[in-house]
User: Fold this.
Amino acid sequence: MHLLLSLGVFWLLPLALTLEEDSPVDCFPRRTVLYHRDNAYLFYEEGVYNYSTMLLREDLGLLMLGAREAVYALDLNDISKKQASVKWEVTEQQQNECKNKGKDPKLECKNYIRILHKMEDGRMYVCGTNAFDPECDYMSYMDGKLTLEKNTDDGKGRCPFDPFQRHASIMVDNDLYSATSMNFLGSEPVLMRSPPQSIRTEFKSSWLNEPAFVSMIHMPESDKSPTGDDDKVYLFFSETAVECDCYNKLVVNRVARVCKGDLGGERTLQKKWTSFLKARLDCPVLESQLPFLIQDTYRWCDPQRPWQDCLFYAVFTPQSDTSDLSAVCAYNMLDIARVFSEGKYKAPVHVETSFVKWVMYSGDVPVPRPGACIDNDARKEGINQTLDLPDRTLQFIRDKPLMDQVIEPKGEEPLLVRRGAKFTRIIVNQVQAADGKMYDVMFVGTEDGTILKAVNYDKEMFIIEEVHLFKSPEPIKILQFSQKTGWLYAGSDSGAVQIPLATCRRSSSCMDCVLARDPYCGWDKDAGKCTDLSSTQKELIQSVKDGNASLCQDTGPIKPLEESIWPGGNLKLDCPKPSNLATTSWERDNRPLTLSSRHELLQDGLLILNASLADAGLYHCVSIERSKTDEYTSTVAMYDVTVMPPGSGKGDRTSFPEAQRDGPSVAGLQAVVALLTICLVGLVGWNCYKGHLPVPWKNRNKNGGQSQENHEQGDLNGSRIQQDTRPENKPLVSAVNSGSSNNNHNSEEAADAENVNQPSLQYIDDESEI
Ligand SMILES: *[C@@H]1O[C@H](CO)[C@@H](O)[C@H](O)[C@H]1NC(C)=O
Ligand SMILES: *[C@@H]1O[C@H](CO)[C@@H](O)[C@H](O)[C@H]1NC(C)=O
Ligand SMILES: *[C@@H]1O[C@H](CO)[C@@H](O)[C@H](O)[C@H]1NC(C)=O
Ligand SMILES: *[C@@H]1O[C@H](CO)[C@@H](O)[C@H](O)[C@H]1NC(C)=O
Ligand SMILES: *[C@@H]1O[C@H](CO)[C@@H](O)[C@H](O)[C@H]1NC(C)=O
Assistant:
């Protein structure tokens, strides 16, 4: 009983701890959808891994999926249906050569498909790492068959050697633009356009300095351009800052761009980009000093609007382990274009013989403007192509490719910040809600194999749900969206999945449907269903900005479920929380239930132990969820509990209330204890993972060092358990109530501890005040 009692206190911890998560810096998903087969269509093949390259062939109704040593053509409407596949395996000889160069034969000496692009003639261009000897080939899909032409190109400079190295590529007008490493060691980075008009970056640290390439995007800037501008290709990456005046290596984010029509210079910059310009990109996260690093981007454009109105969404993760936050920032295309077309340049200044400082360049800038594409003004001067550019312009750009101005995100702050599993990929879809307004919905993949669906409502971050796509946590390696089918496609090491943008039927009540604030979903009063907006003309109840559920009518009285129990027995009353943001409470006979030592409040219900006659009554489980406008209360479950009086029914049982044969028994109690213990372990684990409880081996506190030590001391020999079990003799109800205030107090204490380096005992003592 003692043990059970202390376990009960543990159950209250997450309740109290979730309150801490309301801090403005990050955001918690309203709903968590656990893995279920029916959440997604799944594709994987036995023995094949690393499904991390995708090409949408909406014209063929296919999803091309590149994995390790294989390419698949899957039905775009149901990717579990394989239409065709082709193997591209390394030969034994290639594998041996790779092995002899010191690489892992089972892991690195394989052919990882890394590039899949559509050619103008409908064929596809495929590249693979090919046992550290990258190669490219043409592939066609005809009569239900995928064929590699065996007409191979050297993949050097197009595809990485190392399957673990990041790269980026894009096909524009049949020309492959690639950003990767050109050599076996992975030490010679390049941004290049493949032959026939081959052109590349200078091998200089001021151009690319230990970069990690992320993505490439083509912008059709020549379209109706009044200045006769050219199309551009943008490259997002992170690299070691050359301009940093600092002791340690500092990595920063960059966006670089080149002009599509660039042919290189005549004498200076021969076969090199004359239009390579780059600028720093920031995503300021409140608590971090080091810049967060870019991991993926998504270009969102309204087809009705000019390219200047496009937005780039990007996910960022910290560059050191001291933080477990991830963020999403969005950038206006126009802000980026302006920095390149009008901004100042940075220039290196030799301060001492060996020391170079990068400062804003304020001298004369040659004409044509260095790095600009050939436009009407240049043509007027007789400069029809980059080969005609004067040396002065070319020398300038060769030495000063970095812009001075830093590109800040739209609104100057992240759209989404979340503590926990790192963000890996992002897709954004715009949808019109019932209020007639358009909302950008972010779908963010994480290292745990979850997809977060989130919206930023007037600077309020809101995560509608978090869906677990895979059985066990594994990083989302690629995310794609098909405008044509309206499905999302995600790939990981173990498989690929296809999920809808919205699953409105996850909400079964009007309240839940409206409080979910999902712009795709609304409550259909007549049908009594949460429905996809696009599937109906009817007016639906929705309130995405405010979460105002006042139009939801009372569902009417729900019928209580009958439960009966023997004295001395145990009974669990289920009450699943409709939302992570809701709290539940119990009433008996319309009065708040006074919890005694025989009651266990569970995450998803109430456990009555060692029942007595006084436990009979009508139980209500009430959920309370606060939205922006109001607090909404709804009855989740109702139970009519009767306790069989001793002597009723089977007389012989009365003298053995804890009979072994049926009903609640010692075995049952043991099972409950075992279950609780398992849950407890899980819970403690979860809390440790979330950073609510300190763990010696994994410190998730932002300020690292000191506080980690503090926590470790309090942790090493299990004093943590003690601290949590101490308040066992206080009534549980008061524990709930004091939970919130105490918790705030605690987080303050924790913050204090970080600043002042208070001894660990302080921390424990505070905890015990719960
Ligand atoms: C490929 O998948 C395997 C199995 O999950 C994993 O161990 C390996 O790290 C992956 N390789 C790459 C390059 O991601
Ligand atoms: C540039 O093009 C114009 C018209 O196409 C032509 O008249 C002119 O000679 C060209 N200039 C050079 C330097 O090639
Ligand atoms: C159950 O409750 C009765 C009295 O209500 C008490 O005598 C008994 O010791 C309790 N049993 C357990 C296992 O706590
Ligand atoms: C919520 O919606 C109802 C009905 O539309 C409206 O009367 C009420 O003012 C709204 N409440 C708030 C706080 O906006
Ligand atoms: C556990 O705590 C005691 C004091 O309470 C201390 O003497 C002992 O060294 C600690 N054990 C470990 C493994 O740190």
Remarks:
- Residues 561-643 form a domain with the Immunoglobulin-like fold (CATH 2.60.40.10).
- DSSP finds twelve helices and 43 strands in the chain.
